[in-house]
Amino acid sequence: xxxxxxxxxTGSGKTTVVNKIISLLPxxxxxxxxxxxxxxxxxxxxxxxRSKVNFDEPAAIEWSLLVEHLRELRDGRGVDMxxxxxxxxxRQKETERIEPRDVVIVEGILVLNDPTLRKMMDVKxxxxxxxDDRLIRVIARDCVERGRTPQAVIDRYQDVLKPMHxxxxxxxxxxxxxxxxxxxxNAVAINLLTDYIDARLKRARLQR
Length: 208
Description:
Elements: E1 2-8, H1 14-24, E2 30-34, H2 47-50, H3 63-74, E3 79-85, E4 90-98, E5 103-107, H4 115-120, E6 123-127, H5 131-145, H6 150-169, E7 178-180, H7 187-207
Parallel strand pairs: 1-5, 1-6, 2-5, 6-7
Antiparallel strand pairs: 3-4
Helix pairs in contact: 1-7, 5-6
């Protein structure tokens, strides 16, 4: 199994990079573990307090569960991944069954911050993008998918996203083996990464 970590700021194009990698590899070879599925459950907290929680710092993630699930997958066992609701800031009763695949991509803004998780990764990628481009994507996404107003998104960007990016996400770039500028539009970097993954998989199959 090849474990790939893909990090980068909110709105940097991480999901686009992941989807392009999946599309370039044979069907059924890749499974994706989103960091966002492992936000701590806040169902015991009043709704008005949940909206004030900082979701862009490492303390918001249940890293121990993410690491445990990744180890299970690496050992050939399936896991029941949490399903998180951005609207209620709680984990749902249902889970998503994830089975082991030749390639596991762990994707999220903070996945290069946790040292235990980093040590499990065979390849560490940081998707880079201009701050203005990231903000535009965040406004478009949060208004459509999370029911926020443009002003609320801008306020959150200034109060939380920008300082957390500078404190945690940008510094994690130094742990990356590959930096992908221009996000999902960088076809050269994505093709290089995909070719590397494909070569590693072919080598592993020959050694079986």
